[in-house]
Amino acid sequence: MNLKIVVPMMAFAAILGSCKEKPKEEPMKFTGIELSNLDTNINPGTNFFMYANGGWLKNNPMPEEYSRYGAFELLNIKNEEEVKSIIEEISKKNDLKTGSPEQQIRDYYKAAMDTSRIESMGYEPIKPILAEIAALKTTTDVVKMQAKLNFMGSYPFFATFSGQDEKNSSMVIANLYQGGIGLPERDYYTNTDERTKTIQKEYLAHIAKMFQLIGNDEKTALKNAKTVMDIETNLAKGSFTNMELRDPNATYNIYDLAKLQKEFPKFDFATYFSAIGVDSLRTINVGQPKFFANLSALFAKAKVEDLKTYLVWNVINSNAENLSTAFEKQNFYFYSTVFSGVDKMKPRWKRMIAFTNSNLGEPVGKLYVEKYFPAESKDRMVKLVGNLKIALNESIENLDWMSAETKVKAKEKLQTMNLKVGYPNKWEDYSSVVIDSTNFIQNNWNCSAFSYKKNLEEIGKPVDREKWGMTPQTVNAYYSPTMNEIVFPAAILQPPFFDPTADDAVNYGAIGVVIGHEMTHGFDDQGRLYDKNGNLSDWWTPADAENFKAKTQILVEQYNNYKILDSLHVNGELTLGENIADNGGLFIAYAALQKSYGEKGQPAPIDGLTSDQRYLISYAQIWRQHIRPKTLIRRLQEDVHSPGDARVNAGVANLSWWYTAFNVTEKDPNFIAPEKRAKIW
Ligand SMILES: [Zn+2]
């Protein structure tokens, strides 16, 4: 489990899964709009996504190793090549200082690529920890082992991490959050449809196979797998659903240690906190109290032997990719083939670049921006964001559904919103992390221990406002409601998102909408619940809140009606925050673009396309993508973002200028009557 997923952050695109391989040599040149990417045989009013992307989709089939393949993946491929070239360069150097980013990256990658050693070790590296688990006697021993595993990148039962106090956002407190399951979310344990039942069956078989790989006979392996499945199902039943998790007030519940012990008496929190080195705890946010009540009940009745089996599974599962091919392949089969429909694994070097990126994120990021991020990109972004702020400010001013009183506060929140572009002002000091060129798994544990310890050390301290939630080499962007800030890592400031050689319409339609999207997150159904200082506090008049809900309900219905596959539809409630942000982004970036034209008005068409057409096509093209049906179905359940084609087709149908730019009339399938269109911000 990646701890980052539980930190409040609204990202531009989903973080689940990663996709990285390059199929064939595709020229990485983007000068605005490539006409061959369009399919002009498609009627824009029937399917604008296909009109804007049909040519590209036809000419760029999805490689086997991908679950999804589009603009984000192409940039990830470029990233991989760049990081690899950095590693190759530093590998030629001999006199690298121990603890320097160069030494760490070089040796980490070297150990990761040493497959003959990794292969010859089999599961040898985890044997000592498995032996420790075998020797445990009591539930208190289990709790201590859980704490130890937390420093090895494994989070059985639940997750503990530091984060901003949502009602006192200048301070960092401890958080307890539901977790401990091996399937991506709780509904996979509780749903009873055919797809879920198949996944449950495959998961059980997968766990059993992994137990066999550490020497269990078939019968014992199956018995152990059933024990694990029972415990995880129990944890899942006590968990919040994805919908419940979207309510920040429901996940804010302040406890102290005494209250934890009183309400969840059978789980030994005092021992646990002491074992993770967090002793003087005054304020703990319990994300999901009912989950911890259920956990306490589980500890009251579970056999220690069963809890130990569950811990063994957590060790195997969290280390599967650190071990020999047999473990890696079984892990890939279950998590990629069964879940996402991908049959072929990426080559090892690409997987290990991804590992280097996730374990040594900032050291890699530092070298990455030195080599690949042009300083002028930052200045241009600051200017663009300024223009978007002006446009959103005017839009708030002109809203017909919001009172003057709430408008003042909304504008204050917008003006206070902080901006981070490119890379952090100060880099995390990784120099104490020991990276050895021969020990892959120990390197991973050292990185996990370092970042976990650093995370816990922040508890009880003031917030470090210089911190970033994504590395510079991440192709994404985010809004943090508790920081009230928008963040754009270096890697998204490239074509097709941001292209210094392209015309303004193209840039506003791409990075402009990304900026507007992130700004709007401060005012979506979740973000609006935080004030300008990042505190969860209601600054809305009741009437304005009602108006907002009525406005956003239009979007819920539009997306609920958006058909994906056969009888499958987008979940309009789950994706509401993202859809509000897309809607806002499209309106605000467009308004900023018109303002930038000033009195001269729109420029002459380029390649026969008007400014409006270029803006809309540019937006549609950032969402070009192939996606496997299994991945699509999976994402409809797990992802708070709508699929790419819905982000385009449902997005543009609310824009009056889309109708005029492409001559869309009530005869076209994607037509929405003007009075039924959504505009929130
Ligand atoms: Zn978003």
Keywords:
681 residues; 51% helix; Neutral endopeptidase, domain 2; disordered N terminus; 7% strand; 12 strands; alpha+beta; single chain; 2 domains; Collagenase (Catalytic Domain)
Characterization of this structure:
This protein is of the alpha+beta class and 681 residues long. It has two domains: 3-24 and 42-82 and 360-424 and 468-676, 3-Layer(aba) Sandwich (Collagenase (Catalytic Domain)); 123-322, Neutral endopeptidase, domain 2, CATH 1.10.1380. Helices cover 51% and strands 7% of the residues. It has helices at residues 48-59, 71-91, 101-112, 115-121, 127-134, 139-150, 187-190, 194-213, 218-237, 257-263, 269-275, 289-301, 304-319, 325-340, 348-359, 361-372, 375-397, 404-416, 440-457, 504-521, 542-560, 576-597, 611-622, 629-638, 644-652, 656-661; strands spanning 10-11, 68-70, 158-165, 168-178, 254-255, 284-286, 418-422, 478-480, 485-489, 563-565, 568-569, 625-627. The strands form four sheets. It has a four-stranded mixed beta sheet with strand order 1-8-9-7, covered by helices on one side. The protein has a four-stranded mixed beta sheet with strand order 3-4-6-5. α17 runs antiparallel to α18. The longest helix is centred in the middle third of the chain and has 23 residues, at 375-397. The structure holds zinc ion.
Write the layout of secondary structure elements.
Blueprint: E1 10-11, H1 48-59, E2 68-70, H2 71-91, H3 101-112, H4 115-121, H5 127-134, H6 139-150, E3 158-165, E4 168-178, H7 187-190, H8 194-213, H9 218-237, E5 254-255, H10 257-263, H11 269-275, E6 284-286, H12 289-301, H13 304-319, H14 325-340, H15 348-359, H16 361-372, H17 375-397, H18 404-416, E7 418-422, H19 440-457, E8 478-480, E9 485-489, H20 504-521, H21 542-560, E10 563-565, E11 568-569, H22 576-597, H23 611-622, E12 625-627, H24 629-638, H25 644-652, H26 656-661
Parallel strand pairs: 4-6, 7-9
Antiparallel strand pairs: 1-8, 2-12, 3-4, 5-6, 8-9, 10-11
Helix pairs in contact: 1-23, 2-3, 3-16, 5-13, 6-11, 6-13, 8-9, 8-14, 9-12, 9-13, 15-16, 17-18, 17-20, 17-22, 20-22, 20-23
The structure holds zinc ion.
